[in-house]
Amino acid sequence: VAAVRRDGDRSFLKYARQFDPLDGPVEVTRAEMRAAAARVPRSVRVAIKAAARHIRSVARRQVPRGWRLRVAPGVTVEQRIVPLDRVGCYVPGGRYPLPSSLLMTAVPATAAGVGEVIVVCPRPEPVVMAAAIESRVTRMFRVGGAHAVAALAYGTRTVPRVDKIVGPGNRYVSAAKALVASDCGIDFYAGPTEIVIVSAHGPAAWIAADLIAQAEHDPDARAVLIPPSRTLAVRVARDVDAQLPEDGPAREALRAHGGIIVTS
Length: 264
What we know:
The protein has helices spanning about 1-5, 10-20, 30-40, 40-60, 100-110, 125-135, 145-155, 170-180, 205-215, 230-245, 250-255; strands at about 25-30, 65-70, 75-80, 85-90, 115-120, 140, 165, 185, 195-200, 220-225, 260. The chain is α/β, with parallel strands linked by helices and about 260 residues long. Pfam families: Histidinol_dh (PF00815).
C-alpha cells in the first residue's frame, strides 16, 4: 500500500504482474466486455439482468430524500443528498467468478447517482463482464489484491482515485482497506464470510445450498444452521453431503468451521 501510494504506477504495475499475474493490458475495454458477455449462456444473462433489475429497484428505494424547511422568517434549513463522484468496487476473482459481488456493489452505486463506478477484478471472467455491462460500470481493471485497493485509494496514472471503496476480498484486501480507511472511505471492516441460518421448517435442499454457497468463499468461512428439529438437521446434513463439490474450499471450510446446533 505504501509503495503504490509513493510510486504510483511503477509499484502498482509491478505488483499486478507479480501477484495477479497481469500479462496484458490492465484495463478492460468496453468492446472486450461486450464480446465476453456475448459468450455467456443466454439463461445466465437473463438471470443477471433480472438480478440487476431487482437490486436497482431496492437501491433506488433506499436513497434518502433531501428536504427544505423554513423555520422562521429569513431562516431556511435544507438537507441535500449528494452522491459521491467516483466509487471503486472490488470484485474477488481468486477461486470462482463472482458476478454477484459486482452486481451488489456497482448497481447500488449507479442507482444512487454516483458519477463514475470503477471496478477492479484480478480475473474478470465473461460472466463478471456480463454483470459489468448490466451494472453500467464506467471502467474495469484486471487487478486485485492490496495494490488494487491502494491504487483506488490514492490514484495512479492508470487507475483514478475514488471517493469510496466497497466490496469483499481476502485477508490482504481487508487489511489494505483498513490501512487506507483514514484517507479514503470504505464500506466496513470485513472478516471471513459467515452465515447463520435459523430455521424450523425451511426446505432442506435450499438451506444446504445457502450453507455451501458461503463456505465456498474461503477456507476460513463459517456456516452454521440452528434448527429446533433433529429431523431438519439430518435432512440438511444429507443434502449438504449430496451438493458439496469435490474440489474448492467449501469442504475444508465446513469441516473446520461448519456446524448444526439443534436447540431442542
